[in-house]
Amino acid sequence: MDSALLIRPIENRSNYYTLWHIFFVLNLVAISPLGWGQSSPTARKVIYAQYVQDNITIDGLLDEPAWQMAQPAKDFIQKEPTEGDPASEWTEVKILYDNQNFYIGIYCHDRMPEKIVIADIRRDFEAGEQDYVAIVLDTFNDKSNGYYFATTPAGGLRDQQIFNEGRYVNLSWDGVWHAQGRVHQEGWSVELAIPFKTLRFSREKKQVWGFQVLRQIRRNNEATYWSPIPRRYTVTRALPYTGELRGFENVEPGRNLTVKPYILGGVERFSSRGKGTEGDFDGGLDVKYGLTSGLTLDLTLNTDFSHVEADAEQVNLTRFPLFFPEKREFFLENSGIFEFGAPDRNEALLFHSRKIGLVGGDPIPILGGVRLTGRAGRNYVGLMNIQARSEASVPATNFTATRFRRDIFSSSNVGLIVLNRQSGQPNNSNQGYGADANFLFFQTDLRFNTTLARTLTPGIVGNDWLRRVEGEWQSGLVRVLSSYVDIQKNFNPEMGFVRRPGRRILHSEFELRPRLRYESRLGSFMRDIFLSLQSEHTLFSEGSTETKLLRPQLQIDFQNGSSFQARHTQNFERLLKPFEISPGVVISRGDYPFNDSYLSYSSNQSRPLSGTLAYNWGDFFGGKKKTLEVSAKFRSSYRLSTSISYARNNVDLVAGTFSTDLVGFRVNYSFSATMFLDSFIQYSSDADRVSSNIRFRYIHRPLSDVYIVYNEQRDTFLNRNDRSLTLKYTHLLNF
């Protein structure tokens, strides 16, 4: 068949794609006035903290006399499954404080305590799989930034930092706090102790904080809140809907000095680099000092990340680079301040900290660095300077990032960022700078974001700008998003990430999310139906089309937490030059219209045995592609869980046939809430590699750890084997 005949149907839909983008933008503009009629949340609920001089033992019992004096917060309201209904089980919250800590006591009544689900007690446990309670603290009461603390009936700990109206959440932040839970005949109870020095807040004599409490009853898949929030928001995206915590007087925020030294010893052998067996002994330290109630200074010397979990392998069937997230805790802490623009789809990031101290996934030793982060009034500042050592062909390099953001109106902000990468070699440098603005209206129902950035690279002149604008509006039933990104061909952020330079991308999403009544026949087992349509049109810088995508999708969430998804995608790809998708398989230049379909089902993840099955099939660059993904997880108790995942691609093209296999196997064992053993073994036929990451962690005191880490990468074809065994000890010192 003539290839031109294949092109015409998709080309003739060019206007169809464009009309969809116009439709979405007009909807965004036309619908937004509806938000003017929305009222703000009703008068905020208030809970008062009670000052005590008695000692409070964190044992989960709430049996000290002081608890009887505290005013309770109760009357929790459902967000799930029936928004606005009273909780099926009553919950009561009380707060005490002394000069060093504040204490939260939560009593969770349950008529069937034998059905309480405890799935995991590791640090930063998976919250959605079990019963738990969580609190959110908006310590500056700015409805924009805060802290999240969650715990389980077994005393597991999970904590996060919240930035930028909850658009960015730092999952890897760890604070000093304590929790213990107890299951009893009438349900379960928990006590939390959070030192004031763990938090940042103003120095006002009388404090007023935003405060929220969430309880999940997992067997009902029920989420209840003390201060009700709309179901379209998560707890971290709903800071404007928090209640108020009052009663703290004459308390001091953290301004302490902490020093965290480490010592490390190990042995390694890297045959891929021609190295034999070598011993390793090293040390370093991190220093943290609160300059003011809102600003924190961090110093790091001889920084080490040997204990960080390995990246998950990915198979790349595109001609564009893959994106890997940051996992190193030094760069993750307070990282929300350095977030720039709206990086939801990771097409173009002016700043991505993973470019510091890593080249091609291999670590580059870091000599040291300094970081200043925090807020002063309505201003947020971030300053980071990192010096990396030389390694093989990589010269010693200095990285600097400076960020400023100011809150305006009630929930909006504007900001600037300046970046510099400088090595000791001539003409080996890169700079970037930019400005962004984020506007939120009607309790975040309407959002606009705009970004303008530029990079400077020796030898590259002109066409080095990034421009982006995005708008989103949502209600309980409808969500509309539209964005436009212009990435010029010489935009080159060497401290960031660009997937496709020299492109202009129009992206739109329209979503309907009706909710079934629980009393109805379908509602008894189906909770939510999501009907969505996604459109994307990518143009080369001169204006011709490179790719198009139109994707209708159906997702059904069931009452027990399982879900089903189906979608059909119409694709168009234009290749200006051939590319090798697999060794010996080269796709020729030309235009390729193709369609594919996708089905997936994920079972109830709180069950002892759960899993996911997904199948993708259809046309692919003039041929066919089939992808099967299977995963299963078995949990014998909250101490032991194992999981296995398998993905296979079968690709049949005119240029050749090939397949890829990707296998992952995890075992997690928790000796206690402070001692864990995790193993992660992967096989990728695409990379021809077997990799293993086995980590033992013992938290011998808060934020002080002992790690034993074994890493191995075996190249099966070239018979190369890299191994390392590391023992690392850290100890937090408070002054």
Would you summarize the structure shown here?
Helices cover 5% and strands 54% of the residues.
Can you describe this structure?
By secondary structure, the chain is mainly beta. The chain has a domain at 46-249: Immunoglobulin-like, CATH 2.60.40. The protein has 4 helices and 45 strands. The chain has a 24-stranded antiparallel barrel. Strands 1, 3, 6, 7, 8, 9, 12, 13 and 14 form a 9-stranded mixed beta sheet that branches. Strands 2-4-5-11-10 form a 5-stranded mixed beta sheet. A hairpin with a 2-residue loop joins strand 19 (358-359) and strand 20 (362-363). The longest helix has 18 residues, at 14-31. The chain is globular, with a radius of gyration of 27 Å. It starts with a helix and ends with a strand. 35% of the residues are buried. Mean pLDDT is 89; it is low at 1-41.
Biggest sheet architecture: 24 strands, antiparallel, barrel
Span of the ends, CA to CA: 77 Å
CATH topology of the domain at 46-249: Immunoglobulin-like
How much of the sequence lies in strands comes to over 45%
User: Mean pLDDT score, rounded?
Assistant: 89
Q: Could you say what the CATH architecture of the domain at 46-249 is?
A: Sandwich
The count of DSSP E runs of length 2 or more, i.e. the number of strands, is 45
Helix content: under 10%
**CATH class category label of the domain at 46-249:** Mainly Beta
**Low-pLDDT ranges:** 1-41
Coarse morphology: globular
Number of contiguous helices: 4
Please state the structural category: mainly beta
What is the CA-atom radius of gyration, in angstroms?
27 Å
